[in-house]
Automatic annotation (TrEMBL):
Residues 120-349 form the Radical SAM core domain. GO terms for molecular function: 4 iron, 4 sulfur cluster binding; metal ion binding; RNA methyltransferase activity. Its cofactor is [4Fe-4S] cluster. GO terms for cellular component: cytoplasm. This is Radical SAM core domain-containing protein. Its main location: cytoplasm. One of its GO terms (biological process) is tRNA methylation. It comes from Rhododendron simsii. The keyword Methyltransferase applies. The keyword Repeat does not apply. Keywords: 4Fe-4S, Cytoplasm, Iron, Iron-sulfur, Metal-binding, Methyltransferase, S-adenosyl-L-methionine, Transferase. It is found in: Cytoplasm. PROSITE patterns: RADICAL_SAM.
Length: 381
């Protein structure tokens, strides 16, 4: 039987409880493993010297050796974009499958809040995968072309943060990588709870979970993960267009999705991020902007317009012109007073941009110093 990740929190807690070991020691183990990883940039999947972890009860050591690994995944490859702000991580899982995660570097001082310069400085956002492949089948997304392979365990999700932390100081996490996070709900909740506790201590307000609109999961999301941001991949203002480009939308009708979001916002009192990929001639006309404005005008939302990222022969969609994108934004802002941003394109050359994540192993790597941009999340919140 394969050893589990030490970051599979539920399994570790259960094993400790069965052995009569206080669960307060678990964060201490995580802290040791994380500090070891940061200091050595070590592939921890090969590290099994549990006896080096200090100050544990004697019964903990044989249990750790027999049940758990410091990491079940390895950082296979790292690819730096020529934009000098994006790094893609290719991570090999214990079962031989691969997932991708993307580090995006920003400078919060470049944004404005209430017309004033923002405080802060350089930091990084990590885009995390929750599944190998995806069963949603969105026609504009490369991951959907893989089909669905398997869910990640909570430990495999957290290990992406451990690997990325060796390369950058991660402040924000977005679940916008491979997979539909709410289709792996239990592991998602467990992973976020680990990330917001010691030793990672990420703020829930700086974690965003994206979904195509799994309504039954949205209804319990705030109760399980209070203060975590919800982003909805809407991509069309009417049901028939959604079904054309997002086959899974047939199972989650737009009317029921909006009802679920209304209930979520009433309970959480939080803004909702709306993701909208602009596809030339499909959903980017002025009429679509007005339909979207009318759909969202009763909500507290931030609409994030995303110019389509080409995915080679996997799609026949075209990228909307800059003029169309700006006009779309002006309608939402001017007519409906909806806060609307345009996502900066990052990492296209390493297939690390939005919608481009599909497991492949590029032939070369680029290097360069990391420049900075204003982070879309900081501009929006």
């Amino acid at each position: 039987m394969a050893l589990r990740s030490i970051f599979d929190a539920a399994e570790v807690r259960a094993e400790f409880q069965n052995a009569g070991i206080n669960s307060q020691f678990i964060p201490l183990i995580w802290k040791y493993i994380l500090s070891l990883s940061l200091s050595l940039s070590l592939s921890l999947s090969l590290y099994t010297e549990w006896d080096d972890v200090p100050s544990l009860p004697s019964s903990a050591y044989p249990l750790l050796r027999s049940k758990f690994k410091p990491s079940t995944s390895t950082l296979h490859s790292v690819f730096d974009s020529i934009d000098e702000v994006t790094t893609k991580l290719l991570i090999k899982l214990q079962n031989g499958a691969f997932v991708e995660a993307v580090i995006m570097r920003y400078d919060t001082r470049l944004g404005k809040y209430g017309g004033q310069p923002r405080p802060g400085g350089p930091r990084a956002t990590l885009c995390i995968s929750s599944q190998v492949g995806c069963k949603m089948g969105c026609k504009f997304c490369a991951t959907g072309s893989m089909g669905f392979k398997n869910n990640l365990s909570s430990g495999e999700i957290v290990e992406q943060l451990v690997h990325a932390s060796c390369l950058a100081q991660i402040r924000n996490v977005v679940f916008m990588g491979m997979g539909e996070p709410l289709n792996n709900y239990i592991a998602l909740v467990e992973a976020v709870r680990v990330m917001t506790g010691p030793p990672f201590q990420l703020s829930p307000k700086r974690i965003t979970v994206s979904t195509v609109g799994i309504t039954h999961a949205i209804k319990k999301f705030h109760g399980d993960l209070p203060n975590v941001n919800l982003a909805v991949s809407l991509h069309a203002p009417v049901q028939d267009i959604r079904c054309q480009i997002m086959p899974a939308a047939r199972a989650f009708p737009l009317e029921k999705l909006m009802d679920a979001l209304q209930e979520y916002q009433k309970n959480s009192q939080q803004k909702i991020f709306i993701e909208y990929i602009l596809l030339d001639g499909v959903n980017d006309e002025e009429q679509h902007a007005h339909q979207l404005g009318q759909l969202l005008e009763t909500f507290e939302v931030v609409v994030n317009l995303i110019p389509f990222n080409p995915i080679g022969t996997l799609s026949h969609f075209r990228t909307s012109s800059e003029q169309k994108v700006i006009k779309f934004q002006k309608i939402l802002r001017g007519t409906y007073n909806i806060r609307t941003t345009i996502r900066k394109q990052m990492g296209q050359d390493i297939s690390g941009a939005c919608g481009q994540l599909v497991v492949n192993i590029p032939d070369n790597r680029s290097n360069g110093s990391a420049a900075v941009l204003a982070d879309i999340e900081d501009l929006s919140l």
